[in-house]
Amino acid sequence: MTTALLKQPTPTQAVRKPNRSFVHGLISNKKALTGMAVMVIFLALALLAPVLFPGDPSRITAMASLEPSAEHWLGTTAKGQDVLALTVHGSRSSLFVGLTVGVASTFIGILVGLASAYFGKFIDEALSLVTNVFLLLPGLPLLVILAAFLPPGLGTVILVLVVTGWAGSARVLRSQALSIRSKDFVAAAVVSGERAGRIMFREILPNMASIVMGTLLACVIYGIGAQAGLEFLGLGDVSTVSWGNNLFWAGNEGALLTGSWWVFVPSGVCIALVAFALALINYAVDEVTNPRLRKIKTPKTTPAKAERSAAK
Amino acid sequence: MRFILRRLGFYLIAFWASITLNFLLPRFMPGDPVSRMFARSQDRMQPEQIEALRKLLGVDDRPIWEQYIDYIHNIFTGQMGVSISRFPTPVTEVISSQIGWTLLLGGTALVIAAVVGNLLGILAAWRRGGAIDSALPPVLVFIGSFPYFWLAMGALYLFGVVLGWFPIRHAFTDGLEPAFTSEFIGDVGAHLVLPALTIVLVSIGGWMLGMRNTMIATNSEDYITMAEAKGLRPGRIMLRYAARNAMLPSVTSFGMGLGFVVGGALLTEVVFAYPGVGYQLLNAVQGLDYPLMQGLFLTITAAVLLANFLVDILYVRLDPRVRSN
Amino acid sequence: MTISQVSFGSHQPVLEVKNLTVQYVGDTRSTTAVDHVSFSIGTGEVFGLAGESGCGKSTIANSIMRLLKDPAKIAGGSISFGGKDVLAMTPEELRRFRWQDVAMVFQSAMNSLNPVLTIGEQIVDIFTTHAGYSRKESMRRAGELLELVRIEPSRLKSYPHQLSGGMRQRAVIAMAVALKPSLLILDEPTTALDVVVQQEIMAQIKELQRELGFSVLFITHDMSLMVELSHRMAVMYGGRMVETAKAQDVYASPRHPYTQALMGAFPPLTGPRVPLTGLPDGVKFRNIPDLAEVAPGHFVAPFDADTSVVNSVNLEGAAR
Predict the structure, then answer these.
(1) If one looks up domain C3-101+183-194+209-280 in CATH, what number appears?
(2) Between the ranges A23-27, B54-58, B251-255, where is the mean pLDDT highest?
(3) CB contact under 8 A, B267 and A247
(4) Closest Cβ opposite residue C305 in set A2, A305, A309
(5) C234 phi, psi to nearest 5 deg
(6) What average pLDDT does this structure show over A138-146?
(7) Smallest CA–CA distance from A306 into chain C, residue
(8) Inter-chain residue contact B321 with C96, CB threshold 8 Å
(9) pTM, full prediction
(10) Helical pair A209-232 and A243-252, crossing angle rounded to 10 deg
(11) C120 contacts on B by Cβ (under 8 Å)
């Protein structure tokens, strides 16, 4: 029999960078777009606050407890402060603390996760124990007691939030790092004598990119929410303007009982919008990286069409 | 059995960690807390009580390790000092008088949220792309994005102040005598609705999503395919094959989620002035009542650890693979 | 004779598959896993389906019971069982059809058993659902079933992880024959087991088949097992069928180069030592045409320059 002298097509396509399709998938995802749009708006507001509402937002500008009007879009507080100014300025502290706590917690989580995965054995056991203990201890009581004993201020707030928040990210990142650690390319790197730091940060970490991102988002959400909770109890930095503090004052000044809903609604809604936007992005990241969670598709050919073509 | 023992050991370590934290914190504080408290108590403190406080907060001159041993000993014999804000009631008495309310509120909310949330999650996963799966998760996640206490405030305002359907503070109407009468129980129930509803609304999203994702993962397991191949009825597959397995990670995260619910319950209590340990904790902080603060922290932690331990025992009963080791 | 007419025993084949096409539908493109495949199985016949991993055999098995999961979709063809159109069945008809008419033994028993239910409960499930027996009656029959495959009835109370690999597979086989189905699909039933246990399982299956008289669709990549058990067999490659005939004929005189390569890859246990020949690097088959009869009952897909893509350097090993 004759044979064709066809050359075997060698697989020459370049190894696709895992990030390209990920970013592409993310941008075309509606949830991600909505979330990112909301975040951009809030970040813009936070940065532009001193321009939009110059001066000290907590100064008294008008009569107390005024309803929303053309002059004061969101009305005034029981002390006579402009609620809109307070809300927009509040974004600065809340977003700043949230982002700082998020980044710090994720960073510690990465360190713990990589160290656990790479060094294994004793270090892993020890780190896991510490992580699990922190995960177990109830968050808010721990927050309260730490904040009560440490000197008040923004630094304390960030510190206690990170102390209570790092364990969650550490647990997730550790399990992911461990599963990558067991892959062959890491074993190859170890055997070929690569330095520990290089293996951890250049081999393992890049493959965890999407999980790290998801963790970062979750930690930021935690930071913003927990900060608000602390401040609501009066344990935050009472001298700054933030969403949580706005709610604290609203509670203290009896906004609910006097029916001044405009005082406590805006800050709460802002927290929810930011948290929700971040959650949407997180959801989208999950969907893009885990095909099983995506929506179900229909096939391109129908049985009838195929039948007709086969019968020819 | 070994599994249970290992978990017990772990909880003891965690408890030891919280005791140690309690011990170390006041010693790192700048200034002298005892004088501050003395000033607050308006000269009503007896010398022995001042001395006891000094010992508790480490302001005396004994070597640290001696203080530490003493402290641990005191904890295990139930001596947590005397409360400053409710002078001269001992801390243990203050706590035990109000912990019941927190258990009632937290327990009710947790059970409702867990049961309803899990059921919704199972349904959502079973009919992927269906009404429940598409509509509910985003809505619940959105509601869950609001801080606990804000939803509590909103609920208080809307249903309590504006509509006046439910009472807005305390566990029962002031002046009503606590008794096991239907009147009292009904009153307690009415006061429980808003706070419990708040906690349920915020936490139910987490339960639903968690169960849904676990179910989706379980649904792709081979034994589900085999169950379908066996021609079993869909309901049976969903419950006895899928949910029964998906429940296992759910039970584990129940334990983890307890600490979170506790936090939510505390904040909700503050908003509704519900007389549980959360409300107490806030008062203790504002009144610089360090002994009470520490006592509350330990008690709450112990309760969470205990609950986790019970969950572990439940898990052993549910997963035969852990049992026969 | 067409392929459909070559059936064993009675004139009405138990299973008739015509031009079955299954596609895996992706976001941007689709892959055809099974491409216009036709075959039929007669009453009491053991039909073997051989081929390498990924050739589409398991996909066919799942299609027969309509167990395909997204993104796999049946894109064409027909499957008829005892005259009934399987693809047109309503969900309720399908549910009753499954296990009563056709049952399947999956590759890994450990994964196909529910880890939190006892073996007994998983067998009882079958009886209470399909036969409507009481729990007590179902348990009794479950015990009988286990005895049929030589497992102590006391093991009804055991959980899957408490049984050995061979026992689990036998338990799964017992479950499959519980309702005495007309067709039993065995999807690589022994691949996950060691050779000694393999032999036990094969003997068990042969015994059951003799006793209960069901037809078997036997899927495997182990040619020696296949030839041992099957009456007729077919060889698949890349979603297409390349050869089908009586097992003895395929074994004695394989016509298609792929079949020859498969046969050559398994050493004979007895006889002189011969060098193993298989499919050398770089040999692929594309555009496989429909089967044509080359001898009574022996069908082969014609092959020539269009069909095979060969690297000329390795040509010698391809054909015996």
Answers:
(1) 3.40.50.300
(2) B251-255
(3) no
(4) A2
(5) -135, 150
(6) 86
(7) C76
(8) no
(9) 0.74
(10) 20
(11) none
- The pLDDT assigned to C142 comes to 93
Task: Judge contact between B168 and B156, C-beta under 8 A.
Answer: yes
Tell me the C-alpha distance between C179 and C195, whole Å: 29
Pair of tokens at residue A28: 């075309």
Per-position DSSP letters for A71-115, written without gaps between them: SSTT-B-TTSBBHHHHHHHHHHHHHHHHHHHHHHHHHHHHHHHHH
For residue C77, what are its two tokens? 């063809």
Structural domain boundaries in chain C: 3-101+183-194+209-280, 110-180
Nearest to B223 among C65, C98, C113 (CB): C113
Structure tokens at A173: 């990142």
Residue with tokens 């949910």: B243
- Nearest C-alpha neighbor of B232 from the set C312, C96, A227, A244: C96
Question: From CA A232, how far away is CA C131, in angstroms rounded?
Answer: 63
Distance (Å, whole) CA A191 – CA A181:
13
List, as one string, the DSSP characters of A156-186.
Answer: HHHHHHHHHHHHHHHHHHHHHHHHHHTSHHH
Amino acid at A180: I
Tell me, yes or no, if B304 comes closer than 8 A to chain A by beta carbon.
yes
Query: What one-character-per-residue DSSP string does C239-264 give?
Result: TEEEEEEEHHHHHH---SHHHHHHHH
What is the reported pLDDT for C126?
93
Q: Which residue has the higher pLDDT, A159 or B69?
A: A159
pLDDT tens-digit readout, A151-167: 778 888 999 999 999 99
Question: Which of B32, B79, B94, B78 is closest to B57 using CA atoms?
Answer: B32
Q: Are B90 and B58 in contact (CB under 8 A)?
A: no
Tell me which residue of C95, C160, A292 sits closest to B217, measured CA to CA: A292
- Chain B hits for C159, CB-CB cut-off 8 Å, are 320-321, 324
Contact A137 B304 (CB under 8 A): yes
Chain C residues touching residue B233 (CB < 8 angstroms): 95, 129
Note whether B285 contacts A233, CB cutoff 8 Å.
yes
From the list B13, B145, B154, the residue facing A275 with the nearest CB is B145
Find which of B219, B223, B241 to mutate to test the C interface (most C CBs within 10 Å of its CB): B223
Please name the residue that has the structure tokens 């909103």.
B154
Question: CA-CA distance, B204 to A200, in Å (whole number)?
Answer: 38
How far is B188 from B182, CA to CA, in rounded Å?
Answer: 10
Beta bridge partners of C58: none
- Between the alpha carbon of residue B97 and those of residues B92, B108, B177, B275, C194, the distances in Å are 9, 19, 16, 10, 66
ipTM for this prediction: 0.82
Q: Which of B150, B95, B158 is nearest to B268 (CA)?
A: B150
Question: Cβ A303–C70 below 8 Å, yes or no?
Answer: no
Bridge partners of residue C7, in order along the sequence:
none
With beta carbons under 8 A apart, name residues in chain B contacting A146. Answer: 25
- pLDDT tens digits along C98-140: 999 999 998 888 889 999 999 999 999 999 999 889 999 999 9
Residues of C within 8 A of B324 (CB-CB) are 159, 161-162
* Whether pLDDT at C306 is above 60: no
CB contact under 8 A, C76 and A310: yes
Helix, strand, or coil (residue C19): strand
Which residues from C are below 8 Å from B241, CB to CB? 114, 117
CA A294 – CA A290 distance, rounded (Å): 7
* Helix, strand, coil percentages in chain C from 3-state DSSP, rounded to 5: 40, 25, 40
- Per-residue model confidence as pLDDT tens digits over C175-201: 999 999 999 999 988 887 888 888 888
**Which two structure tokens, joined as six digits, stand for B18?**
């919280």
Q: What is the mean pLDDT of residues B73-87?
A: 75
User: How much is the average pLDDT of A197-205?
Assistant: 78
For chain C, the first-to-last Cα distance in angstroms comes to: 29
pLDDT at A4 > cutoff 50: no
